[in-house]
Amino acid sequence: MIGKLTGRLDYRGTDHALIDVGGVGYVVHCSDRTLAALPGRGDVVSLYTELLVREDLLQLFGFLTPYEKEWHRLLTSVQGVGAKASMAILGTLGAEGAGRAITLGDATAIKAAPGVGPKLAQRVVMELKDKAPAVMAMGGTLNDALDAVVEDDAPGAAAAAAVATAPTAAPTRARSASNAQAEALSALQNLGYGPSDAARAVAQAADEAADQASETPDLIRAALRLLAPRD
């Protein structure tokens, strides 16, 4: 199983990138968001990968973070959602956006992805809404593991060069958003709220602040207001 590739970007196509790893070129299919976040040709890039194996086909799919990869695996567990549909959803909404839409039962947002019809969007929401809180809670753990790997590898010259030249802005923003949601969700559960209620409140708070950089305390306060009993 190929779980991660680090090499130099040879070129990027409309739905894939070619990564040169030690003289071997790997075709990695990516979402629009991932392709847009890749560095320039010849620069070092690292992608987490999922290998699709069929009788007549082998395809690699690439993700900027383990969190995005986990959402891809969850999306493709839904009947009728193949890798192409999952990439369309992640490319349109991002991992955090897809998680919020599913948690809030927003099939319309899922339907906005190219090639995803209303029935399939509804099926995604119905089948994954109870699983979404667990993946949201994993966000911080997955990204902490990613950061630990980078720190452990940092003393090596090759790894240092990769870290210095690889794309950082988009993955860092994604890690920050998923970390904040995971931490807020954990805090609400520690206060006694159920996973589903807490996840919906955090998702709604994050959705309402989608254009702003929400920190964990901001999400907790906003979610608590949403969870407060109303007269």
Secondary-structure map with pairings?
Elements: E1 4-12, E2 16-21, E3 24-29, H1 32-37, E4 44-54, E5 57-63, H2 66-75, H3 83-103, H4 107-111, H5 118-128, H6 132-153, H7 157-165, H8 169-190, H9 195-208, H10 216-227
Parallel strand pairs: 3-5
Antiparallel strand pairs: 1-2, 1-4, 2-3, 4-5
Helix pairs in contact: 2-3, 2-6, 3-6, 3-9, 6-8, 6-9, 8-9, 8-10, 9-10
How would you characterize this protein structure?
This protein is an alpha+beta fold. 57% of the residues lie in helices and 17% in strands. A five-stranded mixed beta barrel has the order 1-2-3-5-4. α2 packs antiparallel against α6 and α6 crosses α9 (195-208). The termini are far apart. Residues 145-170 have low confidence and may be disordered. Belongs to the RuvA family. Residues 158-231 are annotated as: Domain III. It comes from Gymnodinialimonas phycosphaerae.
User: Low-confidence spans: pLDDT under 50, at least 5 residues?
Assistant: 145-170
Cα radius of gyration in angstroms: 18 Å
Number of domains: 3
| N-to-C series of helices and strands | EEEHEEHHHHHHHHH
For the terminal residues, how far apart are their CA atoms?
55 Å
Shape, principal axes of CA atoms:
globular
Helical proportion?
A: 55-70%
Structural class: alpha+beta
Average pLDDT number: 81
What is the number of helical segments per DSSP (H or I, 4+ residues)? 10
How many extended strands? Answer: 5
Adjacency order of strands in the biggest sheet: 1-2-3-5-4
The biggest beta sheet is recorded as: 5 strands, mixed, barrel
Strand content: 15-25%
